[in-house]
Amino acid sequence: MMLIRFNSNPCPTESRVATQTSVGFCLGVLASVVMIGGCVPRTEEDVVVYSALDEEFAYPILEAFERSVDYETSVVSKFDVESTKTVGLVNQILAEQNTPRCDVFWNNEILHTVRLQKQGLLARHDWPVPTDWPRDMISSDSTWCGFAARARVLLVNTKLLESADQYPQSVEELLDPKWKDNCAMARPLFGTTATHWAVLRDRIGHDVALEQLQAIADNSLILSGNKQVAQAVSAGRVAWGLTDTDDAMIEKELGYPVEIVFPDQQPDQPGTLRIPNTLAILKNAPHPVAAHRLANYLMTPQTEDRLAMGPSSQMPISKESKFPPAVLPDKPIRWMRVDFETAAENWDTWAAEVAQIYSQK
Fold first, then answer.
1. Among 64, 188, 296, 346, which is least packed, fewest CB within 10 Å?
2. Nearest Cα to Cα of residue 93 among 144, 59, 25, 152
């Protein structure tokens, strides 16, 4: 959680209103402002952000937002642990739903954002994106928007698999007995691995997805998170594993003998799954003016470029982005077509079924 506090000197009157908003929202707010003694009062001193994106990536961008306004600011931040941070923040939002404290939820994935949408806890917003924004990157009711994606990739140890012909090419190879105990996946109870399998359940059906998850549990090394999978590959503990591009890039940049494979690229395969960051404004947010302003500030090609240039090498969605991330190969990637809103349906029941398979792994 990150709290951004605006500490400007108060106007002589006690009525207050935010002095900077998005253009559309500004007109409605300014129409209600009463000018007293020649001073434009303001209403909002804080904007509270619950951020599941790692502190090292989110904090500098939020600091840049602070510098973009005319007020002195202070920041207090709290970031949860790697494997459960999104779930923890979502549970906090659920616990606070009657008296929200959070204004903006910056999620580093999407499934749990959609869960909040389905429970009616997110506010509609006119997102500043073009009309051709990918349909799987913006909600059907304008309550969330996706940007700066990571991809679900296979990381290969090139000392254990010396020829590219030996590299796995599909996520389904996690089930292949030839890789018994020599491939790895994160426990699919949290984060992007949980999102990945919710999406696959929607594609291949509930029963088939559960059968595959059981086969993977029996065939693969199951670790606590995607970072641990990437580290197991780079250390040679396994020949390859399913992870995220940001974790894979860290191992590659550290000089370990690894290569990244974007899986399922053949015409009869579904394509590679990309999972975006998401932004959402909470319904009945305590500071809606500042929340809308911050959301508009973050949803820009410039933010995507900052994330692309960073060590996580996140992939911009905007066509106006100017910085291609290092993780992308030279040839175009076939992306999986996804309906995240459908994938999130019946999440609690599905999660309980998956937990029965993986709780002891």
1. 346
2. 144
